[in-house]
Amino acid sequence: MTDTLLISRDGPVARVFLNRPDVRNAFNDGVIAELAAAFTGFAADATLRAVVLGGHGKAFCAGADLSWMRAMADYTWEQNRADAQALADMLHAIWSCPVPVIGRVHGDCYAGGVGLAAVCDILVAAEGVNFCLSEAKLGLIPATIGPYVVKALGEQASRRYFATAERFDAARAHALGFVHEVVPADALDAKVDELLAALVANGPAAVRACKSLVHDVAARPIDADLRAETARRIADVRASAEGKEGVQAFLNKRDPSWR
């Protein structure tokens, strides 16, 4: 844990909060490295069951830090490439985290901040949150965040908001399917806790397998290979100790051992 990234643990749940409120949690190369290291560590933690990603202060994340952007103005192509690769790798570390990541979004969520939101599995936003893919206003493009935003926001909406750089609010993000829940700001933590309770009530291995299943089948054709793979996956789970325990608990009307 550092001053700019606060990480806490409550049993099987980790919480990661950006802590640069003076710059609306804008990130720089240091924050990117810290986030990548944190989520790489989470990937190796078999006891972890969920992660909450949020920010302290008035905003979730306003994108790139202005001081960092000024420094990048003098970068060579090679330096820009290395810098962008670090951001791409950090986003992938969050997206590929084996347990669900809940994004707790409040205040502004701009540019790279939208990328951070997009790599979360579940998004809860406070009423009044504004999203903006603002890169085109600066003559730039949302390239490294693009694959994740297109998946989460949808291709058609991305065509518009990538090119126009318009702001859209939480209600619009919810209507587009980008945000799962929109709640009053003072109810944000309660909704996050409600979702955490739902996640930890389920089979730990099953939840991880569910996340992996969505990643693996989302863009694949429903052909013979996929049908065979999904049949194998459910057979593996049914034959596992957790699968047997869950079914027996249900049949015997008792709580499973993981609760």
Question: What does it look like?
Answer:
The protein is globular. It is 49% helix and 15% strand. The chain contains eleven helices and nine strands. The chain has helices at 29-43, 66-72, 77-95, 112-118, 146-153, 155-164, 170-175, 188-200, 204-217, 224-239, 241-251, and strands at 5-10, 13-18, 50-55, 101-105, 108-110, 122-126, 130-132, 167-169, 181-183. The chain has two domains: 5-199, 2-enoyl-CoA Hydratase, Chain A, domain 1 (Alpha-Beta Complex), CATH 3.90.226.10; 203-251, no CATH class. Helix 5 (146-153) crosses helix 6. The protein has a six-stranded mixed beta sheet, sandwiched between helices. A three-stranded mixed beta sheet has the order 5-7-8. It is α/β, with parallel strands linked by helices.
Predict the CATH topology of the largest domain.
2-enoyl-CoA Hydratase, Chain A, domain 1
Low-confidence stretches: none
| Total count of domains | 2
CATH architecture of the largest domain: Alpha-Beta Complex
Overall morphology: globular
Rg from alpha-carbon coordinates: 19 Å
Keywords, separated by commas or semicolons:
single chain; 259 residues; alpha/beta; 2 domains; 6-stranded mixed beta sheet; 3-stranded mixed beta sheet; 9 strands
Topology:
Blueprint: E1 5-10, E2 13-18, H1 29-43, E3 50-55, H2 66-72, H3 77-95, E4 101-105, E5 108-110, H4 112-118, E6 122-126, E7 130-132, H5 146-153, H6 155-164, E8 167-169, H7 170-175, E9 181-183, H8 188-200, H9 204-217, H10 224-239, H11 241-251
Parallel strand pairs: 2-3, 3-4, 4-6, 5-7, 6-9
Antiparallel strand pairs: 1-2, 7-8
